[in-house]
From TrEMBL:
Organism: Roseimaritima ulvae
Source species, domain of life: Bacteria
Domain Sulfatase N-terminal: 52-365
Cited Pfam families: Sulfatase
The protein, known as: Arylsulfatase
Entry's family note: Belongs to the sulfatase family.
Amino acid sequence: MLTPDDRRGLPLSWLSRVANVSRVTLVLCFVGALLTQAMDATSVRAADSERPNVILILADDLGYGDLACQGAADIQTPHLDQLFAQGLTLERFYANCCVCSPTRASVMSGCYPDRVGVPGVIRTRAENSWGYFQLQRETLPSVLADAGYKTAAIGKWHLGLEPENHPLSRGFESFHGFLGDMMDDYYNHRRHGINYMRSDRDEIDPPGHATDLFSQWAVEFIEQQRDGQRPWMMYLAYNAPHTPIQPPEDWKQKVLKRQPGIDPQRAALVALIEHMDAGIGRVLAALDQTEQTQDTLVIFTSDNGGQLSVGANNGKLRGGKGMMYEGGLRVPCCIRWPGRSRAGTRTQRLASTVDLLPTICKAAGLAAPEDLDGQSLLPLLENENANWPQREIYFVRREGGNQFGGLTIQAVRQGSWKLLQNTPYEPMQLFDLENDPLEQNDLSGKQRKRFNELSARLRLHVQNGGKVPWQK
């Protein structure tokens, strides 16, 4: 570089040429920077194009046997039947609790719910609320959003009313749905007379059945993504078929006409599930119509088993919602990823809700947060009989009322063995599910070594959960 002293005495023509060269250099550098930026943007878009879109659909209280493809003879669920047929069915998939909020915390965190502050149901009334979703935990939508995904939550949230636990505060860019727990009415969307329906953080009061609204909002979101500029993730959480069992009347009449003599209570539940299936069909059709099906990973499951008192079908499993028996915990689940999953495959490998976050992160090529309890299910997409670790799966529920008094019930499954306590006031029971899938023969007195080993592991898990505050 020429100093001012060097420049003195040089011909003006030479200095002019130097200045011109400098200007050319600057222009070339600027153009190079633009090209580099464009190449970087192109590479980002290329990377984005290799990342799947994600739809995670969560039903509410859907029984293990309450789909036609799961063996129900009195129900027609063609859209979910097709989804299951096109991908991998996980026949031994467990919700991480027998009630709503804890399982949803596992979906969001990839951790056992009591380890993230949600050992029981988060309710709209503080005196009967049994959890506070841990703020320092990274969530599935926050991980994806940080990597460039567009993230949307549609439907039931049920992880807290506090501003800091609003979906928009936990990684979602948009929220269209119900902030609270259950609805007292599918048409007016109230709970204890309070409207919890939201568009982002704004209260809204749209007319219509909640299932129709959630399905329509999901379709609209998919249609808005047809330009493909960013990969996206949609969490679609239906209230159906949770109580009140309130299907549209025409759907109920269709079931009654098709099946004369069906129990009226069962007919209403069947209609509510079939109505949800039709909504899911609209969502999947929107993928087809916008040519996004091949680029989208779809996962479907339920937050817990079906409620027996309203006529749910949990197949041959014992018990239902709210119980630590198989009917309260084992739920339908399928994964469809075009080009990766193989149609009609089924696996017997044990898996649970905590596995969904690491599965989706792995599919997106992202590192999952540390200290998770789940693991990626992608090896099972490639080989449904893939080697699978013999890990334990834990279940804890804390609850109020006279039945529980703020105490917990719990269970652990390891291989074919399951140890459970179904109420706080009864002894633990031990079952060999390989030889006793209906949990009829308690072996706690005969298999004391196994009983002691599993009860020690379960106590340690309960202690770990006790380290995490579950009240604000």
